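hey can u run this one w/ NAP bound, need the structure tokens asap thx
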Amino acid sequence: MTHITGRGAMRRTVVVTGGGTGIGRATARAFAAEGAEVLVVGRTGRNLAATAAGHPGVRTLTADLTEPGAAERVAAAAMESWGRIDVLVHNAAAVLPEPVGSLTRDAARRQVETNLLAPLFLTRAALGGLEAAGGTVVCVGTAATLGRRAFPGMSLYGATKVALDFLVRTWAVELAPRGIRAVGVAPGETDTGIGERMGWSAEEIARHQEQAAARTPSGRVGRPEDVAWWIVRLARPEAGYASGTVVAVDGAASVV
Ligand SMILES: NC(=O)c1ccc[n+]([C@@H]2O[C@H](COP(=O)([O-])OP(=O)(O)OC[C@H]3O[C@@H](n4cnc5c(N)ncnc54)[C@H](OP(=O)(O)O)[C@@H]3O)[C@@H](O)[C@H]2O)c1
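ok here u go:
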């Protein structure tokens, strides 16, 4: 295990939740490409291993972040290896679309626990490491909830993402005295394979992406790397004056 002390020539240390697929995978690899040491967390070991394959800076930790003790285990793994956490990316999410009339309590609970409570308690567990680094918390929300727009079929998912933006604003103020900043990245429709994982058919995915591209002024959906680029940049020390802000990366879809 790599034990790192002193801050001089250190590589940056990054934890990415949901790093086994999609935006999380692209983010982990983008940080690693910049020379960072990255810990990716998720429930599916083989996906995490695929993210790490060929990227020596990426290590994996299998954990269900909704389980009691998981946040502490992730923070402890990072602290044991590095003694600090420069960047904590809350990217893991549960997306369970359902109109309110048929939303089950279980689906509601899973989304709240994964999208809201897991970032909350992982941030809490990581505070010592973030403070030691003068670190940055990055929350991945969604551009679909920016402004005063509705999100039919996604009321609970959207509510968790609105709440995540509120955590960003609040933590930016609350944690500033400890040298920690908080920022959000709000992706628009991004081609991550999430549709397949939600059980949609190939036709449904194609139709969905076509419609999303048509209502996006940039005329296309995003790639995971489009979003990862911003996460990496916002977490850099040079971006240090940005805190409490949420950046939309959505081809202008949220402003039409
Ligand atoms: N794709 C889009 O169009 C889009 C648009 C706006 C916002 N976003 C947001 O961007 C982020 C990434 O989305 P994505 O499209 O890349 O989704 P994705 O590929 O489904 O990634 C979500 C990741 O979270 C992990 N995860 C889920 N529940 C977990 C749990 N309880 N504990 C630990 N890990 C868990 C999943 O891995 P396991 O199942 O192996 O645990 C998965 O790797 C999400 O926050 C999403 O809300 C996406």
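The radius of gyration is 17 Å. anyway lmk if its weird
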